[in-house]
Specification:
single chain, 239 residues, alpha/beta, Rossmann fold, Arc Repressor Mutant, subunit A, 2 domains, 6-stranded parallel sheet, 6 strands, 48% helix
Length: 239
């Protein structure tokens, strides 16, 4: 691990220099390695970030996040009891707005994509520049993706492949919302309700509600009819 040990440890409750004009960012660090947690915590504290809690496994990360509602959770992947991917899914299921950034030694794009599909806002290697880490977290809170350029290119390639699949592009104007189109696309792949819920990080009840709305909007009596109606919408020329 290449995070550099800080020269001094800040007070957890101290405000960043410049006064209380902006509320300090509040974070939870989840990592089963005590040294890693210490180094990450000190690096964040030096930048004025308040580390309100530390978790040594995925289950603790879920419970602490549910209790404290931090601005951001830094989540390791390989942890006992519950790994970081599963923990991220549970955190996002509890609160879809929660920002989770996966921080791991595994420099693996496939794991990164899996983490993003689980609901994480970012995926960073632990050799990230420690001085840039707080800025990256602040960027994630502002809606920026905390990912490497290489992983960003993988996402572009993934979108290119998705646009080329037989289902075709979604029409610009349609009665379905973007989320409902996501559900329709998975129905077209014969995914079950539970599989759709898992992939979109939703509850089964929410998926069933989306399917009912889709069938109502497309005047369909079954899932297969809804998929066929959606395909007709795709094939219609733009108005």
């Amino acid at each position: 691990m290449h995070l550099r040990d800080g020269e001094r440890q800040g007070d957890e409750d101290a405000e960043p220099e410049g006064g209380p004009a902006e509320r300090p960012l509040r974070a939870i660090v989840a990592d089963d390695d005590p040294l890693a947690r210490k180094m990450i915590k000190e690096a964040l504290q030096q930048a004025g970030v308040i580390v309100i809690a530390e978790a040594q496994n995925g289950r603790q990360a879920v419970e602490l996040t549910r209790h404290y509602r931090p601005d951001v959770v830094l989540m390791d992947i390989v942890m006992p009891e519950l790994d970081g991917i599963a923990a991220t899914r549970r955190v996002i299921k509890d609160n879809p707005e929660q920002i989770v950034v996966i921080l791991t030694t595994a420099d693996d794009d496939e794991i990164g994509l899996l983490g993003l599909r689980s609901g994480a806002a970012g995926f960073l290697a632990k050799d990230v520049d420690v001085d840039a880490l707080p800025r990256t977290l602040q960027g994630a809170l502002s809606g920026e993706a905390a990912i490497s350029r290489r992983l960003g290119m993988r996402l572009v390639e993934h979108l290119r492949r998705t646009s080329e699949r037989p289902g075709g592009l979604r029409p610009v104007k349609s009665p379905l919302t973007p989320r409902e189109w996501e559900v329709v696309d998975l129905l077209a792949e014969t995914k079950t309700t539970d599989q759709i819920a898992e992939q979109l990080v939703l509850s089964g009840e929410t998926v069933r509600t989306h399917i009912k709305n889709i069938m109502r909007k497309l005047d369909a009596r079954s899932r297969s009819e809804a998929v066929a109606a959606a395909q007709r919408l795709r094939s219609e020329p733009p108005a």
